[in-house]
Specification:
The protein has one domain. It has 88 residues and is mainly α. The protein has four helices and no strands. The termini are close together.
């Protein structure tokens, strides 16, 4: 399974090396000296964050689907509450 997920570049989501953007702080939008915001428009910031979240969500969902597709019936109860690929 790990090899298959690595081939699709989805293993990063399982290991949580690719973090959910909603967990990230607003520091990404601040310059290195933390003196000024690189992007002034709040709407634009929200759009960037939502776009990054949708990209993360799509890849995470692909990894979840991949793993759910190969489990055996008896394993379903162990992963029923899993939300992310890392949980699986």
């Amino acid at each position: 399974m790990k090899t298959a997920l690595q081939a699709c570049l989805l293993w990063l989501f399982v290991k949580e090396l690719e973090e959910c953007p909603l967990k990230l702080s607003a520091d990404l939008l601040v310059d290195k000296d933390k003196k000024s915001c690189l992007i002034n428009s709040t709407m634009y910031k929200n759009w960037i964050i939502s776009k990054k979240y949708l990209t993360w969500y799509r890849s995470n969902s692909a990894a979840v689907g991949f793993m759910q597709g190969v489990i055996e019936f008896g394993q379903c109860k162990h992963i029923a509450s899993a939300v992310s690929s890392k949980d699986l």
